[in-house]
Amino acid sequence: MASSIRWRCVSVLLFVVFILSVHCSNSNPKKKKDIRDYNDADMAKLLEQWEKDDDIEEGDLPEHRRPSPPIDFSKVDPSKPQDLLKMSKKGKTVMVFATVSGNPTEKETEDVTSLWQGSLFNANFDVQRFVVGSNRVIFMLRDGSYAWEIKDFLTLQERCEDVTVEGQVFPGKAANKANKEKAQNETKKKKDKNAANRVNKSKQDL
């Protein structure tokens, strides 16, 4: 009888201790960190949690986190490496650099390249233009697969000296014209020099 009473007392005592421990743990919850005290690591962790919880659509992801579209190598012509470059840049931002000929002012470059951008817009090319110097401009494309078509258009413009795409420099119409004039001048000088030599030789013979 005494042992059963003792066990009951022990059980009641343990129950009271359990209730008190639960109450104490609830009354002292873990203090949360103030958002003003967050450092870069805390902010990065918070951003990761948000991205994990949210279903972000593929188009809303930053470009470096979007999966690249698969390349169908059966459609790639091995004799045209440019086609492979086009396919690899599909859906990626590409910048095309262009130089305006004739030592223009920045205002003149703005006017000339604005006409180029308007023509590209009329041809359904969505490009943004940034003048970065007195004769230099950047055309930014959201879909880099069109960069080479835009390069072909720009190199045919009268005032285009050169176009740079992915580190490759392509001479424009103005550069070709200047080279042609230079070659003609050199040919003319050579002819004049030969004529002068013939005259001098004939004088010496006399």
UniProtKB/TrEMBL annotation:
User: Which InterPro entries is this protein grouped with?
Assistant: MESD (IPR019330)
Signal peptide positions are 1-24
The Basic and acidic residues compositionally biased stretches are 178-195
Which BP terms in the Gene Ontology apply to this protein? Answer: protein folding; Wnt signaling pathway
Which UniProt keywords are listed?
Answer: Chaperone, Endoplasmic reticulum, Signal, Wnt signaling pathway
Q: Where in the cell is it found?
A: Endoplasmic reticulum
**A cellular component term, taken from the record's GO annotations:** endoplasmic reticulum
Residue ranges, annotated region (Disordered): 58-79, 173-206
What Pfam families does this protein map onto? Mesd
| Origin: domain of life | Eukaryota
Q: Does the keyword Nucleotide-binding apply?
A: no
Homology family? Belongs to the MESD family.
Q: What is this protein called?
A: LRP chaperone MESD
Instruction: Write the lineage as a comma-separated list.
Output: Eukaryota, Metazoa, Chordata, Craniata, Vertebrata
